[in-house]
Amino acid sequence: MDLFPLWNSLRIAAIASVAVFFSGILLAYYVARLPRVLKGLLDVVLTLPLVLPPTVCGWFLLLIFGLNHPVGRWLKQWGFQFVMTWYGGVLAAAVVAFPLMYRTARGAFESFDETLAWSGKTLGLSNTYIFWRIRMPACRQGILAGAVLAFARALGEYGATSMLIGYTPGRTATISTTVYQLWRTNDDAGAVKWVLINLAISGVVLLTVNLLEKKQKEGGRRP
Amino acid sequence: MSLELEIQKRMGSFYLDVSLTAGEGVTGLLGASGCGKSMTLRCIAGILRPDRGRIVLNGRVLFDSERHIHLPPQQRRVGYLFQNYALFPNMTVEQNIACGLHGQWDRAARQKAVAEMIERMRLEGLERHRPHQLSGGQQQRVALARILVGQPELLLLDEPFSALDSYLREQLLTELRERLKEFEGPALLVTHSRDEAYELCSRLAIMEQGRLTACRDTREVFSDPGTCQAAVLTGCKNIAPARKAGEHLVEVPSWGVRLACAQPVREELQAVAIRAHYFGGSIEENAFPVRFVEEIEEPFAWILKFQYAGQDPASPPLWWRVSKGARPQTLPEVLGVSPVDVLPLYG
Which residues lie closer than 8 Å to B125 by C-beta, 6 or more apart? Predict the structure, then answer.
């Protein structure tokens, strides 16, 4: 059995999650402190992929990164082509998973008690120290939850991925596109295998989330 | 050692306009909630930027709108004790205190200073605890330790007891007073509690809607509040509009009486105040017939509400507070008050 879709899905989801993790936190932090009108506007744009059908996201990505668009042509000059390549899958997964990270991180930042940051400043702590050692730990739970959600979403991405990178066995096939492809070609036995693999991965992700939450609770109530 | 400030700041419809000079010792800012007390402290600490003005601490300019100086909070050397103490929840007591020594790179010196502070604040044994495992009083001590370890030049205390139960409050009040005595430098205490203000502050300024009255000796503010707001905040229960009726005589229309007043009365008199415990059945001055309308029992005193015989029945009754031992068997028909205790208010 060709395990390429598993490996491809995992690398796409991993890279996309890392990218979304940092960009989501950064944007959440800065958007939360913008003036209200600008904040509302950016919020809509950054959350849009969550509401739009993934195929519509894929359509937009094709439009921008396809070779008929200046952006796509310009990237092609530098040797990057997101259409029909595995790293195009990273782009598709990242765009679709981004709002989950962004919104949970923003919620966590907004519920952060700002007096903690103020007291850090009056104590002489640098803003960088306050961000990484006080704000981030206090928001850890929300940020972790966002990261896991984003990873799970990236791993299961189908719509935008199939639009942008299609299905080429051994090159762009992911687990979700493979399941569809096998079902379409009446290969039920093959589809079942991938469904089982999918179930196993989901189980591991959910278990991790539960363990993290438990650890968090215990860490908070040490005698 | 002194703090001088003169700042203005607009926030929405609220306008803060404060000037203040504070020397060594504790200066109190007494005001109702929402009057701009915390905002003033935040401006001094550098968390908020005033629109205009100047803040000078021990000759060091912290803020000057004309010279475009606005030092970041990190460089002000101002210790700020927040209402909720703002301890970092993810750090132990020790780590929290060490945060106050961030500029100190020598590890050994830092550990020594933290250990000394832990001993001084009686926090031994709690070094590895986290803030949520501490009692309110311990949290306050950690917060104070964290501030003092960095040797600030100014202390700002924002309602330091509002997060505590009332029985703890009295105990900690004494404790904090001792700690503040050790601190050399000015301290500003913001509070809405007259007890805290009276017990902790040597000087007191009253704050009302973003404005600050001149600083006066605390005892003086209590014995002669001077304004309606100050009278209310220092706990006067009986306040009524009044006008001048003579050199030492005020007329209170709603009470239907003319009261002799020890202080010379000025033309612009607006009201008079009489503290609830200053009345007496055997005082002969300012004695008028009264009618009792209600009794309220407190743990150690009675509040006897009454109206003067000639009082407008629609106006609120006056309060007479008698400690339980001193309550007369039969309530007097006439109540007097010494002219010294009739306090004229101007605005």
Answer: none
